[in-house]
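Progress narrative, work stream C.
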Amino acid sequence: MIEGILLPELDDDSRPFWDGCAAGELRVQACGECGRLRFPPRPMCPWCQSFAHNWNAVSGRGRVWSFVVPHAPLLPAYQEFAPYNVIVVELDEDPTIRMVGNLVASEYQPINSVDPYSIEIGQPVRVVFQRLGEGEEAVALPRWVRA
């Protein structure tokens, strides 16, 4: 566990996403009317304005769309890991759905376990989940490994 990191707040809109992560499943909100996927989750569909929605499990596969390598982290809890990578992944199911995370060597490795010079745009990846925190505060964060 990383001491001092900010864990996500669980609210009514995002709780199904985090519940899925805890169950080892990547879920994306979909409109109950037009069926379009949307991320981040929100109460209303931006395309048809419907309030109806579902949560769909997706494959957890995608490609590196972009990445950065922070050398001087903004949060003190990440200092010991710098430099580390932060990637943006476009999902296979819908390339307009993009998620931010870290590319790691395996689900048990730290966020600096991959040489940042080896990351390439377009590289295929798949999701893994890393549990942080304890008890009611615990959360499973989606991280990415090379596919």
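Work stream C, second folded protein:
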Amino acid sequence: MKERFDIVVACDLKGGIGKNNAIPWRLPGDLKHFKNLTSSSTQAGLYNAVIMGRKTWESIPAQFRPLPDRYNVILTRNAAYQAPQGVFVRNSLDDALAWLEQGPVDQVFIIGGSEIYNQAIQHERVGLLYLTEVRQQFDCDTFFPDYKGFFQLVSSSEIQSENGIDYCFKVYKPNLLV
């Protein structure tokens, strides 16, 4: 496993990422980007891992859980939480990272929600931040934490549009990453 983990998020212009445990926009191009990014391994025979909080796990429609071709890791403080076979439960981000180091894992991605993102952006092992910037404002009750003091922009894609919504893909690196 690589020493660092990356973060993947889509958020609106105010940092909104969800409402009532659901994504408030429908962008198939972003979902395809997410799938390609998190499931494409750089080493043959290895899988990537996605780490998410319990609420994020439960927000994924049942027919799409677990996310295929990736190790799915759920973070929860509930020691009795039951996950399907092949889905792993850990009690903290550090516990999950230490556990994943023991196995044949290529890349690790943090995929939500806001509490996990908050821990991840300040973590000493944070790598890149892959941010889909949804270029309008939605009614959200869950937000991505303020990351601007921790990261600097590396690249930005052209603006795309789907379902009347403009968005682009941005990549940031931590300020401390050399």
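The chain has a mean pLDDT of 94. No further action is required on this item.
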